[in-house]
Amino acid sequence: xxxxxxxxxxxxxxxxxxxxxxxxxxxxxxxxxxxxxxxxxxxxxxxxxxxxxxxxxxxxxxxxxxxxxxxxxxxxxxxxxxxxxxxxxxxxxxxxxxxxxxxxxxxxxxxxxxxxxxxxxxxxxxxxxxxxxxxxxxxxxxxxxxxxxxxxxxxxxxxxxxxxxxxxxxxxx
Length: 173
Hints:
Elements: H1 2-19, H2 24-52, E1 55-71, E2 81-93, E3 96-101, E4 106-107, H3 108-114, E5 121-127, E6 135-136, H4 139-172
Helix pairs in contact: 1-2, 2-4
């Protein structure tokens, strides 16, 4: 429902920017700042929710590679394709077998240089309440929601400050 309200707000803000052309830019900036602020708060709340879960460390093994082929959206480059590789990891937790994909999708060149190969061992964090939702035990995997949330919230605050200084300048000048 919240996503539907967000989608419906896009044309409303654009129409408002055209109707109130003298403050249209301020309307767009305030809407964008609000959306970024909500994304930031959502990311931080998701991180907080993940921190409340109890995790156990297990070792997993890369058992296969899942390939995704993506084509360019541009008509003149429609035949251009990129292959992305996502390692599939098998792990056992409390006697039961699970599989999950790695956090990163690699293009072919990055995979050849940095990606885990079949048979490589990886450390995984397994949530006790949801053992099928294991993630790689890496800094980026554990803190990605927090990083995105703080960055989005910071940009939102900067935009809000700039917006407020423009409103004050508009009222006094």
